[in-house]
Design brief:
The protein is an alpha/beta fold. It folds into two domains: about 290 residues, 4-Layer Sandwich (Nitrilase/N-carbamoyl-D-aminoacid amidohydrolase); about 325 residues, HUPs (Rossmann fold, 3-Layer(aba) Sandwich), CATH 3.40.50.620. The chain is built from 20 helices and 20 strands. The strands form four sheets. A seven-stranded mixed beta sheet has the order 13-12-11-10-9-8-15, covered by helices on one side. The protein has a six-stranded mixed beta sheet with strand order 5-4-3-2-1-14. A hairpin with a 2-residue loop joins strand 3 and strand 4. The longest helix is centred in the middle third of the chain and has 23 residues.
């Protein structure tokens, strides 16, 4: 495997009903095609060596013998390949006929899995020809010169990777064979199918595959037969899916008259991580498995050095993926309103106080607060917005803050903190020419003091504006902007805030007049504005020049905290996601910065204020993330140092 990915494929070949020689010729071509693309496990449709629609021809011993001979020729002809192949065919055992999946690799037949549940309703009549897996008495059968393990309590294993197989109808049952095999350790379930088309069935099938991969915390590869099957009463168009933990990674288009190969990757390391974290899954394993029941059959995967580049798309913004961005942006706003309104109802607050800097975070916090007051039927004037220009405030951000508060109709205060900060410098004996942490943090703490005191005056909670990215990096002043009564953005990374503000512009959520101000805020360089502006009055202190690009840090945060991925895997994923934008060396540099900051700044997160979890990740010590302040990053940093500068 390469970074925990297994390259899988589903193939839909042309078939001719009952023409086994023709069928294996088509299958052989697709096996070699898959081999050339680095595929490690290939699934083909149910009964594809004979064709699924043979009907009573399945009762002809000659056809069954032809199918076995064809399989043996196929295994021999593909002996030079390394791809593990799962092919559907009838297998005769104990004078019974089974609808089976046969697994072979590099010239050897590894095992056979009979279908567990036979559909015998509506258009399906499989019980007329086949026996279910439960009727099987033997655990070995002969296929040519091979002694082949056979049974439904079988998984195939290559090191840490285990796969299970089910056949068509098996997945439509309340407790699927794939579910059982997943509880026994199979991370990827393959389904060899022959599902016909009917109106609405495809969408139902898609939801079924998504649901099974979600509840079983597994990858799911589905393949169904296509053109060439008999159209006497049914329609077969060929379809395939690759899914992973509830998400359809890729889907094969239907109604295309050609042979097709769907190639993608399953992230087994992610599946392992999810299962490790999910206590309910572990409990289900204890409840539904028993020692000694399962047979494991070994197979071989390519080494990481031999594996090819992954096929799947890696989302550069995993918090708000592009295909769901608008929906998720609106969902975040609604969750913030719901959470903040509950807090205000609980404490009986009629006012709130919020610092407004003219930057991204405070803008979204103010908009969410205003929307909450609208939702509660409270006057916007009871939102107390406070802008506090200091030693590094630019005219642009001050103007944006004032315009924002004016257009939203909140009560606004403009309090210049420079005299108070300069007096503070004199009181503590700090030289204001020395623009160090004391210089910067004194301003942040002065602002927090003003907000807290105004909160006392109006009997109002102070709404925090800091975001998840800043908490992860410790890019906040302890006892300053780190503190509030309720931190509405605590679950949102910086990049998500940018997207949400764009969404609010596009949907005209707060009126046309606000759009120019929001555009200006989005175009303003990210800065704490704690150091003086340049000679032209422009912002001189740029956050991303110091800590690195937020889009990279947010990518690191998601993959480190969600899945526990190693630095080497995160570098690889980032290299794919940001191809052409950041070199491997650049990614390595800012990853080093991330891990150093994340570990050393945990003490700030251990006493962070309440704030709603709105994404997959929360850094609250009362929620998802509990970590001692004295944890050491040595092992992670050592791996980062060993990472290549080029990939």
């Amino acid at each position: 495997m390469k970074h925990g990915f297994v390259k899988v494929a589903a193939a839909v070949p042309f078939v001719r009903v009952a023409d086994c020689q023709y069928n294996i010729e088509r299958i052989e071509r697709m096996i070699h095609q898959a081999e050339s693309q680095g595929v490690e496990i290939l699934a083909l449709p149910e009964l594809c060596i004979t064709g699924y629609t043979c009907a009573d021809l399945f009762l002809q011993p000659f056809l069954i013998e032809e199918a076995e001979h064809a399989l043996l020729r196929l295994v021999e002809r593909t002996a030079s390949t390394r791809v593990m192949v799962l092919v559907g065919m009838p297998v005769r055992v104990e004078e019974k006929l089974f609808n089976a999946a046969v697994a072979f690799q590099s010239g050897s037949i590894l095992g056979a899995i009979p279908k567990t549940y036979l559909p015998n309703y509506r258009e399906f009549q499989e019980a007329r020809w086949f026996s279910p897996a439960k009727d099987l008495q033997f655990t070995l059968t002969k296929l040519g010169g091979f002694d082949v393990p056979i049974g439904h309590n079988v998984i195939f294993r290559a090191g840490e990777v285990a796969i299970g197989i089910e056949i068509c109808e098996d997945m439509w049952t309340p407790y699927t064979p794939g579910t059982r095999l997943a509880l026994y350790g199979a991370q990827i379930i393959f389904n060899l199918s022959a599902s016909n088309e009917s109106i609405g069935k495809h969408n139902y099938l898609r939801s079924l595959i998504s649901g099974l991969s979600s509840q079983n915390l597994c990858g799911y590869v589905y393949c169904s037969c296509g053109y060439g099957e008999s159209s006497t009463d049914l329609v077969y168009t060929g379809k395939a899916f690759v899914a992973e933990i509830g998400r359809i990674v890729e889907e094969m288009p239907r109604f295309v008259y050609e042979e097709r190969l769907l190639v993608n990757d399953i992230d087994v390391s992610r599946i392992q991580s999810e299962r490790l974290c999910n206590s309910s899954f572990r409990a289900s394993v204890s409840d539904h498995t028993q020692r000694g029941l399962l047979t494991e059959i070994p197979f071989v995967l390519r080494s990481a050095e031999e594996s090819q580049q992954i096929n799947r798309h890696i989302e550069s913004n995993p918090f708000l993926p592009a295909d769901q961005r608008s929906e998720r942006c609106q969902e975040v706003i609604d969750m913030q309103i719901c959470a903040l309104s509950q807090r205000l109802r609980h404490i009986g607050a009629q006012h709130v106080v919020i610092g407004v800097s003219g930057g991204l975070d405070s803008t979204l916090a103010l908009l969410s607060t205003v929307a909450t007051f609208d939702f509660l039927g409270l006057p916007r004037e009871q939102v107390i917005g406070v802008t506090m220009p200091g030693l590094g405030t630019s005219a642009r951000t001050l103007e944006n803050a004032l315009s924002l508060m004016h257009l939203l109709g909140v009560t606004s205060y403009n309090i210049d903190i420079r005299p108070a900060v300069e007096r503070h410098f004199a009181d503590i004996g700090h030289d204001p020419q020395l623009q160090d942490l004391t210089y910067e943090n004194s301003q942040a703490r002065e602002r927090t003091q003003i907000l807290m005191d105004l909160g006392n005056r109006f009997n109002a909670p102070v709404i925090g504006t800091g975001d998840l990215s800043e908490l992860a990096l410790g890019w906040c002043t302890y006892g300053g902007d780190h503190i509030s009564m309720y931190s509405v953005n605590a679950g949102l990374p910086k990049t998500s805030i940018q997207y949400i503000l764009r969404h609010l512009i596009e949907t005209n959520a707060f009126g046309v007049a606000l759009a120019p101000v929001l555009h200006s805020i989005l175009e303003t360089p990210i800065s704490p504005e704690l150091k003086p502006t340049d000679q032209e009055g422009q912002i001189a202190q740029h956050t991303e020049a110091t800590v690195g690009p937020y889009e990279l840090h947010d990518f690191f945060i998601y993959n480190f905290l969600s899945y526990g991925f190693t630095p080497s895997k995160i570098q690889y994923l980032a290299h794919v996601a940001f191809e052409g934008k950041y070199s491997a060396g650049t990614i390595k540099r800012w990853m080093r910065e991330f891990y150093h900051r994340f570990f050393t700044q945990q003490f700030k997160r251990n006493c962070m204020p309440d704030g709603p979890k709105v994404s997959r990740i929360s850094l609250s010590p009362r929620g998802d993330w509990r970590m001692p302040s004295d944890a050491v990053a040595k092992a992670w940093l050592a791996e980062i140092e060993a990472l290549p500068e080029e990939l």
